[in-house]
């Protein structure tokens, strides 16, 4: 266990060394949030609420969705694909840790860094510019914390899954890009899931993606009732468990038929 | 004439390298399509909840998005030199470029083109035709020519801005993240500028004129007469910005000191 915590620490320090890159990142995210703020204000026009969300809740939703993304987002699928292509993965196999756990821990180190140095200051800056409503209830914040931890887990599992696929496809840049589009669209980052037509919503009930962004953002904006919050957390928890199975299966098969290209 | 011949040599060479990895190219085109679809889905879902976006209907917004894709595709194919700083300045590749017999910017465009982005034009035109038919737009004989002029204007706006940003590297080779920011600001131009506040509208019209890539030229085809002045300024602004950027580039080249070995 200690070695994994060390992984988190090293990645965190690595990110800290390049922290100036992140100041401009906050600006980029603010521009994105700004664009959506104006767009949504125009969409609302003089409607009081759409699908149970007021315009201020919507702005809050967009802002928190982008800022939470900084925490759960990582590129470990690309890193895994790169290491497989370069043959480095062969060395990783003989090291005394579980490769996928190690990758997850690196992602977590990055996530914690961005949460502290990006999301929190970013959220403060954004809340000065745009009308954003922070919940006063302590329970909302606690539920939100639990929920973004699950977002991280589910998103990372999906990344691991796409990364491990490289063992079978050799070059899967296309798959990685496609996965990104799917997550942007179906996780609720751009649009709350409740805005989609009913048939699309019922399809998404059977997919893990809304556990990534929709659930934590809705919790943060107080868009869910207490019962819905428990249901949503259960949804995230169940998916976090289910996704372990395909990852383990693919990993075992991949180890058996590993072909190292160079290295 | 010489330039055209060189251009087509580079194009045929490019096709050969790309067609060697057909699956890879196909995947790239597919994922471009997916990215374009995301924005379309966004518009469709949003208009499931509202009739008008400050006076613009669903099909008009879709039309603007379709138009935007066409100049953006041309920009992506030829002027997308976002990695100029790293690739040419930091690595000293610019030295090699300067020994070539054609203009340095032209040489870089030849080397960095990504012709598969041109597929975006087809998507864009298809989206426009779909929206145009639903809006019952009438087309005169001169409209296709105006369309071409507007598209070139829009592509030059993007090209001008990115060439100017690339030129900054001649003075300072430190890494900046202005360029990813520009892609995000560019997205503002896809929606009617009257939804933004005055400051942003002014910036999008005169300072970073992304509005001339999407909403202003589209206003002409949508018959929004109160926007015609802006619509017809599109080629003027496009050419103006592009020539300004070439001027800045040329000044920048004289300041280039070389960094490689």
* Sheet with most strands: strand arrangement of chain B: 1-2
Major sheet summary line of chain B: 2 strands, antiparallel
Q: Low-confidence parts of chain A, pLDDT < 50 over ≥5 residues? A: none
> Which overall shape of chain B is indicated by the principal axes computed on the Cα atoms?
globular
Number of helices of chain B: 12
Number of strands of chain A: 2
Find the count of extended strands of chain B (DSSP E, 2+ residues).
2
List keywords for this structure.
heterodimer; A: 263 residues; mainly alpha; two-stranded antiparallel ribbon; 2 strands; 2% strand; B: 261 residues; two-stranded antiparallel sheet; 12 helices; 71% helix
Summarize the structure.
The complex is a heterodimer of chains A (263) and B (261). In chain A, 75% of the residues lie in helices and 2% in strands.
What does this structure look like?
The complex is a heterodimer of chains A (263) and B (261). Chain A is built from twelve helices and two strands; from the N terminus they run H-H-E-E-H-H-H-H-H-H-H-H-H-H. With 263 residues, chain A is mainly alpha-helical. Chain A has a two-stranded antiparallel sheet with strand order 1-2. Chain A is globular and about 60 Å long. The relative contact order of chain A is 0.14. Chain B has 261 residues and is mostly helical. Chain B has one domain. In chain B, strands 1-2 form a two-stranded antiparallel ribbon. Chain B starts with a helix and ends in a 6-residue tail after the last helix. The A-B interface holds A 21, 24-25, 27-28, 31-32, 34-35, 38-39, 41-45, 47, 50-51, 171, 173-175, 177-178, 181, 184-185, 190-191, 195-197 and B 24, 27-28, 30-31, 34-35, 37-38, 41-42, 45-46, 48-50, 52-54, 175-178, 180-181, 184-185, 187-188, 191, 195-197, 200. Chain B: It comes from Halobacillus yeomjeoni. Chain B: Keywords: Membrane, Transmembrane, Transmembrane helix. Chain B: The chain crosses the membrane at residues 25-49, 61-82, 115-133, 145-171, 199-221, 227-249.
């Amino acid at each position: 266990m200690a070695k994994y915590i060390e992984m988190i620490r090293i990645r965190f320090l690595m990110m800290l060394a390049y922290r100036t890159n992140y100041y401009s990142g906050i600006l980029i995210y603010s521009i994105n949030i700004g664009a959506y703020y104006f767009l949504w204000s125009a969409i609302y026009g003089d409607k009081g609420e759409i699908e149970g969300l007021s315009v201020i809740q919507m702005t809050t939703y967009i802002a928190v969705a982008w800022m939470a993304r900084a925490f759960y987002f990582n590129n470990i699928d690309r890193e895994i694909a790169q290491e497989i292509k370069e043959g480095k993965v062969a060395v990783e196999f003989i090291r005394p840790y579980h490769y996928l756990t190690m990758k997850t821990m690196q992602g977590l180190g990055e996530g914690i860094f961005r949460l502290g140095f990006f999301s929190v200051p970013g959220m403060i800056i954004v809340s000065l510019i745009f009308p954003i409503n922070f919940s006063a209830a302590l329970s909302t914040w606690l539920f939100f914390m639990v929920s973004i931890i699950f977002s991280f887990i589910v998103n990372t599992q999906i990344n691991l899954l796409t990364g491990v696929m490289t063992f079978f496809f050799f070059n899967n840049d296309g798959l990685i890009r496609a996965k990104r589009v799917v997550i942007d669209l179906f996780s609720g980052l751009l649009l709350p899931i409740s805005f989609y037509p009913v048939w699309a919503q019922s399809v998404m009930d059977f997919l893990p993606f809304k556990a990534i962004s929709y659930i934590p953002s809705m919790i943060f904006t107080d868009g869910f009732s207490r019962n819905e919050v428990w249901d949503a957390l259960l949804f995230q928890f169940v998916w976090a468990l289910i996704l372990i199975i395909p990852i383990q299966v693919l990993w075992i098969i991949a180890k058996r038929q590993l072909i190292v290209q160079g290295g | 004439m010489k330039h055209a011949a060189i251009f087509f040599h580079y194009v045929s060479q490019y096709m050969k390298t790309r067609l060697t990895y057909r699956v890879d190219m196909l995947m790239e085109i597919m994922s471009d399509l997916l990215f374009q679809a995301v924005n379309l889905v966004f518009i469709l879902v949003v208009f499931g909840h509202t009739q008008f976006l400050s006076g613009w209907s669903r099909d008009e917004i879709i039309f603007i998005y379709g138009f935007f894709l066409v100049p953006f595709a041309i920009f992506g194919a030829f002027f997308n030199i976002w990695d100029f700083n790293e690739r040419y300045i930091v690595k000293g590749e610019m030295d090699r470029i300067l020994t070539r017999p054609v203009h340095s910017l032209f040489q870089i465009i030849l080397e960095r083109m990504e012709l598969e982005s041109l597929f975006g034009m087809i998507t864009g035109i298809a989206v426009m035709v779909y929206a145009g038919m639903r809006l019952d737009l009438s087309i005169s004989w001169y409209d296709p020519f105006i369309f071409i002029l507007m598209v070139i204007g829009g592509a030059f706006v993007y090209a001008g801005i990115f060439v100017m940003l690339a030129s900054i590297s001649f003075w300072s080779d430190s890494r900046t993240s202005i360029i990813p920011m520009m892609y995000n600001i560019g997205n503002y131009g896809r929606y009617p500028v009257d939804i933004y506040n005055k400051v942003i509208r002014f910036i999008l019209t005169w300072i970073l004129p992304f509005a001339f890539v999407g909403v202003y030229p589209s206003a002409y085809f949508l018959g929004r007469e109160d926007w015609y002045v802006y619509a017809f300024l599109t080629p003027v602004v496009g050419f103006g910005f592009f020539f300004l950027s070439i001027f800045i580039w040329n000044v920048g080249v004289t300041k280039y000191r070389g960094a490689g070995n």
